[in-house]
Design brief:
The complex is a heterodimer of chains A (326) and B (215).
Chain A lengths: L3 H7 L7 H21 L26 H24 L17 H24 L10 H17 L16 H22 L7 H25 L7 H6 L3 E4 L4 E4 L35 E5 L9 E5 L18
Antiparallel strand pairs in A: 1-2, 3-4
Chain B lengths: L18 H26 L18 H25 L6 H25 L9 H8 L6 H23 L5 H24 L5 H4 L13
Helix pairs in contact in B: 2-3, 2-4, 2-5, 3-6, 5-6
Classes of the chains: A mainly alpha (326), B mainly alpha (215).
């Protein structure tokens, strides 16, 4: 009589253990592969040889001095193009119900446009000095997302859709153009200021700020044409009061901002849902978005509202971007 | 048919992977996995003749910046003191007083911001030289004060332009640029308040000289 242990030792291969099962499975798969490989190939179809086209790779969006300067040239040219359109279509003459003292802006805007032409040339000159190609058309993003929609809304209105009725062209095109001029001048100034921590060359910074200072003064000048006497923001005026004037002998407290800090000027336009610009809107040069409101209101009275911002990310003119106008 | 027999016990011991061997294999594997990354870096390095990246400018003011910013603070405090002189005069309308006091507050705020950058290096006082140079026009009727303030704001803009051309730290650059833009607008406002209607006056086409060399 033999015990179980003895039986196992005498027939080590008769049992199918786990390892054996794996081995059999592997052999089966290998056999199947061999059989499949020996099968007949389809006649009449040639196998592809060679290399196909590779997946396109986007160039790296590297932001350097050249890109920033090209972008600024485009922004200035967008402003020039907008002003030229206003001048060509006679949008700056006539009168405005909202701004009765505005007058004809043709001379002012002609002067502004000349400055922006020079500014674009300066930015392009500096861009080429930094190894970039000049950018000789408007900023694509600024044009398509901001300036063209303003012109469309003001001049053409909006066609009716299934969900909304038609919006007529603007009730006051001169008001809307004046506000667009103020917005674009503020944008130019703000964009030059925003360059300061971005560009690496001191001479570029100095030139950019020289141009930005001029645009800031344009913005202040057009703000005063729109809103005579609108010198400073009501908030800053209130914060400035009371002013303690101290000299060696006396201290005088002057209640100069009574009535909300807005200077009382008889020919100031009435406040409406389109905000009135002021010459010095903030204590420091601001980098915040500039809100533009214009055009005729929709069925709920809501006008076109856009926030203009200094160039960033997808509004930059990278080396792989091409100027459509050549 | 060969049959593999796994033996357990003393005979199998040399084939076992020890902890040390496992660690060694892990380190080797890690080194291999880093190869593509390292080779990618090597490819990304600019070849000879290509443009190289520029060094990022410092954010904090450099030692050279400190002297320039100290001058800027003295200028702003000088402007504040001069506006105080104007506010002490009589004959202002309420609208004019609002503007003049707002500008006075702005210049004080600029000086305080510069203090924040300078810390213990901030002079904290107006420049006697600048007060003497600029102060002569600050007397008489409001119209005279407005003309003097117009010149002061223009000189401040020109001075800040000089500073921007020399500053290296981006914190200081951003601050000075934001001050310069605001002071540029001040000039247009003062021109309008003074009754100037010509565009070259409103746009301050004739900028005053920088005070940096005079300081």
């Amino acid at each position: 009589m033999s015990n179980e242990m003895n039986h196992t030792e005498s027939n080590p291969t008769s049992q199918i253990n786990r390892r054996g099962l794996f081995r059999i499975g592997g052999l089966t798969v290998a056999g199947a592969v061999v059989v499949a490989a020996c099968g007949k190939t389809e006649a009449g179809e040639l196998g592809s040889v060679g290399e196909g086209a590779t997946t396109p790779v986007l160039p790296d969006p590297i932001v350097d001095n050249g890109v920033l300067l090209r972008t600024m040239a485009g922004l200035e040219l967008s402003i020039v193009n907008a002003y030229e359109r206003m001048l060509e279509e006679g949008l700056l003459a006539g009168s405005s119900a909202a701004y009765p003292t505005l007058g004809d802006l043709t001379e002012l805007v002609t002067e502004f446009a000349a400055h922006h032409v020079l500014a674009a040339k300066s930015f392009n000159r500096m861009a080429t000095q930094h190894g970039a190609e000049a950018w000789n058309c408007g900023n694509t993003r600024l044009d398509s997302a901001y300036i063209f929609p303003v012109f469309d809304r003001v001049l053409l209105g909006v066609e009716a859709t299934d969900a909304a009725p038609k919006i007529e062209p603007s009730d006051d095109p001169l008001r809307d153009m004046a506000n667009l001029i103020h917005t674009l001048e503020s944008l130019s100034s703000e964009s030059c200021q925003a360059l300061m921590p971005q560009v690496t060359e001191a001479d570029v910074r100095a030139t950019a700020m020289q141009l930005g200072v001029r645009s800031a003064r344009h913005a202040a000048a057009i703000a005063l044409r729109i809103n005579p006497g609108g010198y400073v923001s009501a908030t800053d005026a209130v914060n400035a009061q009371p002013v303690v004037v101290a000299d060696a002998t006396t201290t005088t407290v002057q209640d100069i901002a009574a009535g909300g800090g807005t200077p009382a000027v008889s020919d100031a336009p009435k406040a409406t849902d389109v905000p009135l610009p002021v010459a010095v809107p903030t204590q420091y040069g601001s980098l915040s978005p500039i809100t533009y409101i214009g055009g005729r209101g929709d069925e709920n009275g809501v006008r076109l509202k856009l926030n203009f911002e200094s160039p960033s990310l997808n509004s930059l003119a990278y080396p792989f971007d091409v100027c459509a106008a050549g | 048919m060969d049959i593999e027999v796994t033996e357990i016990g003393e005979k199998a011991a040399p084939q076992r992977l020890g902890r040390r061997a496992l660690l060694g294999a892990g380190v080797g594997g890690a080194a291999l996995s880093l190869l593509p990354l390292l080779s990618g870096r090597a490819v990304a390095a600019p070849a000879e003749g290509e443009n190289t990246t520029t060094t990022a400018p410092p954010t904090r003011p450099t030692s050279a910046d400190v002297a320039l910013l100290a001058f800027a603070q003295q200028l702003e405090l000088t402007a504040r003191d001069l506006y105080d002189k104007a506010l002490a005069a009589t004959g202002w309308s309420a609208a004019e007083l609002t503007v003049v006091s707002t500008f006075r507050e702005s210049h004080e705020a600029y000086a305080q911001s510069l203090s924040g950058l300078l810390g213990a290096d901030a002079p904290g006082a107006a420049s006697p030289e600048l007060l003497r140079t600029l102060g002569s026009g600050w007397a008489g009727a409001p119209g005279k004060f407005l003309a003097a303030a117009y010149e002061l704001e223009s000189a401040a803009v020109a001075t800040h332009a000089d500073l921007i051309a020399q500053l290296q730290g981006t914190d200081a650059l951003s601050l000075i640029a934001s001050i310069q833009i605001a002071e540029a607008r001040h000039g247009t406002v003062l021109a309008d308040m003074a009754g100037m209607t010509e565009l070259p006056d409103l746009l301050v086409e004739t900028e005053a000289n920088s005070l940096l060399v005079q300081g």
